[in-house]
Amino acid sequence: MRYYRRGQTLILRGEFRAACTGIPGGLGKVPTILIHHPAENGNVQDPSRVFDRVLHREGLPPDFFGLVSGHPITSLCILQHDFLTLFISAGAPGRDRGSSGPVTMVVHSREGMSDSALLESIMTATAARMEAMQALGRPLSGDPADGVIVASEGEVVHRDAGISTAIGEKIRHAVLFGVREALARVEEKGTRDRPSFFIFSRYQGEHWVEWIPEECPYYPCHFPGQRCEFCYCPFYPCGDESLGEWAKSSSKNGPVWNCSGCTLLHEPVIADYLLAHPEASLTELKRKKSTG
To answer: Is residue 32 classed as helix, strand or coil in its secondary structure?
Structure first.
């Protein structure tokens, strides 16, 4: 899975088997998932046409699943929890204050999920959203604009995703934290210039860490003048032994991909190229580096 931002649209690209409560909704294989914020006023009369325009603008195939965000994409929260990546956005409450505002969530798993697990994940994520609202003392009624997409890639590993399963527990944990952070961004004064990125860390105890490039205590971790847009590599784990190696895990979870010595995406020319061509392959980037 690769994701990138184009204006007020977040675009996820891959070979997804997904379940969607948004546009057009359903269960199926799609190459594209979209989260779009309408810049005009947050209201969309015909979201299908809006998404069609985005696909046409980006030159993408017509099959997609999409959600409309109630807040600018720069307020989005992106959470990395092991093999899961979640994208959570919240919107402002309606005038009648009958709801806490719309919450849109995309859950992506690098480990494959059965169709029943995809559908069960929607229930798990929705229940966690309500749990987060309850903890904050907010209405539990939900919002007509709420939406969830759950997508996975690869061979099926998870056939269930209820709250008592390993994947369900991770989804619940990430949603509880992510909804709180997304709602906090709705209430902020001023605007952010990029989405917020969080990673679940087990270093010195389990906790969520927000990665902020300007505050990174390890900069420069490779060389002066390095670029850090892709500190959390979109190719991980690439398995390319010219860039890294499989290493024994101290947590007894099997081997892990160690690419701490790889500087490819930190090279300014490569970072610029990947920002301009977000679907470039690893082979293409390596060729770009060799040719200068």
So the answer is: strand
- Residue 214 is classified by DSSP as G
Six token digits for residue 197: 């990125």
- How confident is the model over 216-231, as pLDDT tens digits? 888 999 999 999 989 8
pLDDT interval class at 248 (50, 70, 90): confident
> CA–CA distance from 173 to each of 26, 57, 131, 206 (Å)?
25, 36, 11, 11
What amino acid is encoded at 19 in this protein?
A
Residues in contact with 250: Cβ distance below 8 Å, sequence separation at least 6, in sequence order: none
Q: Catalogue the E-assigned strands of 21-165.
A: 26-36, 65-68, 77-81, 84-90, 103-109, 112-113, 147-152, 156-158
Mode of pairing for the β-strands spanning 26-36 and 65-68:
parallel
**Residue 73 confidence (pLDDT) above 70:** yes
Tell me if residue 262 falls in helix, strand or coil: coil
The CA distance from 26 to 131, in Å, is 25
Q: Which residues pair with 246 in a beta bridge?
A: 257
d(CA 271, CA 269): 6
**Which residue stretches of 229-267 are H helix?**
none
Burial class (CB in 10 A: 0-12, 13-18, 19+), 245: middle
Query: What is the rounded CA–CA span in Å between residue 134 and residue 148?
Result: 19
- Structure tokens, 170: 């991770």
Pairing state of beta strands 256-258 and 2-6? unpaired
d(CA 107, CA 148): 8
Whether the model pTM is above 0.85: yes
- What SS3 class is residue 287? helix
